[in-house]
Design a protein that fits this description.
Layout: E1 6-10, H1 13-23, E2 28-32, E3 35-38, E4 42-46, H2 47-54, E5 68-72, H3 75-85, E6 89-95, E7 101-106, E8 112-117, H4 119-128, H5 133-140, H6 144-151
Parallel strand pairs: 1-4, 5-8
Antiparallel strand pairs: 2-3, 3-4, 6-7, 7-8
């Protein structure tokens, strides 16, 4: 079995397309109304078509006990974008006990989105604040070798978050 993505049923495909592209910075890999696919894993589908495809007499919409989670190396940029678009927050930016900054907010259909700093970004932020690798490893509760690897200069092939 292979996981192929998360489908999100939306009421306004255009508004949601703009949200996921312009705010979260996802890349559209397929766009065929009534379905838009981002980064080959986040799938938006018009609500009415999604309900028709389920072929069930009843679909529960009251369970919002989930969220889509993203990580970024540029947390401050995401916060600026959220503020520019007037997003409704679940909570404003907060810091987890190990130092990761996170924010939760709603998409246009009130699905919860979490964006947090990547581990690499947290580690580099602490290094920029003057912590050495040993202290960072202790602070973030991660392996010292992993911390040292995150502190190495990026190469041209390193285009993904840790």
């Amino acid at each position: 079995m292979k996981f192929t993505g998360t489908l999100i049923a939306v009421t306004d495909l255009g508004k949601s397309r703009k949200f996921y592209r312009d705010i979260l910075g996802l890349t559209i890999t397929s766009d065929h109304d009534p379905t838009v696919i981002f980064n080959d894993c986040v799938i938006l589908r018009k609500m009415d078509l999604w309900i028709d495809n389920i072929q069930s007499g009843y679909v529960m919409f009251d369970n919002r006990a989930s969220e889509m989670r993203f990580e970024t190396d540029d947390f401050d940029d995401i916060i600026l974008r959220l503020d520019t678009f007037g997003i409704k927050y679940v909570h404003k930016p907060a810091m987890r006990s190990w130092g990761q900054r996170v924010v939760r907010f709603y998409d246009p259909d009130h699905h919860i989105i979490e964006v947090g700093e990547s581990a690499k970004a947290v580690i580099r932020r602490f290094a920029d604040e003057g912590m050495d690798a040993e202290r960072i490893a202790e602070r973030v509760d991660m392996n010292l070798n992993f911390v040292k690897k995150c502190l190495e200069p990026d190469t041209e092939d390193d285009n993904h978050a840790v």
